[in-house]
Amino acid sequence: MLLARILTATVIVGNGLVAGVLFSHAIGVWPAMRSLAPDRYIAFHKSFDRAYDPLMPIIVITAVICDAVLAVLSADLVPRVLFASSAVALIASGIVSQTRNVPINHRVKALDPAAIPIDWVDPRGEWEKWNHVRTAFAVLALIGNAAAAVSAI
């Protein structure tokens, strides 16, 4: 079915982008950000995350919708379960992002790098922990989606 092929390609690309961005951030960008002095970290964070907040949720939601439709359309149990499980993992990644990482991002972006409050608590350890959690969910979803795609071959 052509629709299933288009949705499968869309979910693989979307989920791959999400997992890739989060993974790349976790192993490349984040170690650099973590090593910066607080004022430089805040300035960098404010300039770096401008495009993520509006774009990433759109990609995640699109992939979740594709996964849900594919789970319904799949005639076989294995891809049905894999697509559904991947949707759940992507939803979990999105929930962690929206309830943990994004609020920290907003707090950091509200700061003036030249006037950090004396009682400021550095959020980098907390942000990193939740970033690893959401990255793990996104990668698990990608594994599930890839397995579902190849199970139909």
In words, what does this structure look like?
It is a single chain. This protein has one domain. Helix content is 84%, strand content 0%. It has helices spanning 2-35, 38-48, 52-73, 77-109, 124-151. Helix 1 packs antiparallel against helix 3 (52-73). It is elongated. The two termini are 13 Å apart.
Short description:
This protein is 84% helix and 0% strand. By secondary structure, it is mostly helical. The protein has one domain.
Question: What are the key terms here?
Answer:
153 residues, mainly alpha, 5 helices, 84% helix, elongated
Please state the average pLDDT score: 95
Structural class: mainly alpha
Q: What is the overall silhouette?
A: elongated
Biggest pleated-sheet summary:
none
Beta content comes to under 5%
Helix content: over 70%
Q: What's the structural blueprint in terms of helices and strands?
A:
Layout: H1 2-35, H2 38-48, H3 52-73, H4 77-109, H5 124-151
